[in-house]
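check these tokens.
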Amino acid sequence: MNKLRKYFYISFAALSVGFIVFIIILNGREKPIPQLKERNQYISNTSEWLNTKAAIEGLLFALRENPNNQKAKLQLAEAYMQESRITGDHAYYDKASLQLINGVLKAEPENYDAICCLATVYLSQHHFADALPVGEKAIKINPYNSFGFGLLVDANVELGNYDEAVKMADKMVSVRPDGRSYSRISYLREIHGDVNGAIAAMKMAVEAGYPGLEQTEWCRIQLGKLYEQTGDLTKANLQYYNANYLRANYVYALTGLGRIEKGNKNYPAAIDYYEKAKEMVKDYSFSDELTDLYRLNNEPTKAANQAVKVVEMLNSEAQKGNDDQQAGHYADRELAIAYLKVNDFDNALKHALIEYNRRPNNIDVNQTLAWVYYKRGEYADADKYIKVAMKTNSQNPELLYEAGLIYVKSGNSTEGLVLMKKSLEINPFLRVELKNEGNAYLAMK
């Protein structure tokens, strides 16, 4: 019996050592190179996709031949970052890109392009505090390339460091005045209340790009949104139409056209645009917009279903982030807004505070937290945070209207009504649900 027991212990020990050795060998190997996923039928019938596939297949072949080809690895990461933008499949492509980028940085820690790619993915994942030091490292390595300064513009804006963002934008445009720098200047002007200046800069961004490229048409969409913000639906519609013409079935052009139909109260047409967009690209915001559209179209059941779907989608992405940091995407601000639409004010506050604790100086985060407190009837807290949201003098009409409502409820009716009226003067096509909140107060004057 003792011999049998001794034999068992020796065998078990041998197996354990063998298993440990196997794990060490396995961990020493690089993970398999992430593969390209097929696009869905709506965005795969273009020559651009055929060219993209051919280029990526060439890179994958190069890496099979030589897994240490760092240049091919980085080019593949950049291609996957672009696929993430086009398909909306951020969870897969962000993780794939990070794996490739980290592989390059392991071999070449000072590789400027890889460092910039790392910061770009962090920004895409809303990991803004992580992106900032990576961007700072990039400009130390190469202060003569504008891209690194663009990363610092984005990170500082999202963290609420607006003065620093302006400094970085000035440096960026001085190094290279192009579409990327003009678009950032546009956003900073918008944040600081200079909407006309923002429009002028975004026009320059569009003109600096090649028509039809995703980056150029993205800028054209932003220009359309600026026109929307001023209530000029005709000019906004033209930008969306042109973007869709130059880049067929460009999903963000379609949703722009949907918002124009919504502004014109043609809700069935708006719903059609958003339903098509939802089939084409993964983006929770399409279901979020459909929630509002179904309510306006007197389809409460569909609206409720979409509202629940948004919460489920965002929670799913958050869970992926908890399970795998490389696939993570912070979406607590978006979750706070989504929970408001299902009247779950406790979870709305929970997620608004999580986002606030990450970036307490950001005006959008403060606006969201203020609106959650308003919906909870906690007007003193709402007043505190909406004042922070107003600190840059943004003339965003939705911000002004929400601030007006909060001021009215906090006892400052005179200033509140002024802000609400100013908001409607800027954009009379403001969200119907929001305007309904203030109609009774405006009617009293």
Remarks:
- Residues 2-28 form the longest helix (27 residues).
- Residues 55-138 form a domain with the Serine Threonine Protein Phosphatase 5, Tetratricopeptide repeat fold (CATH 1.25.40.10).
- The chain is about 80% helix and 0% strand.
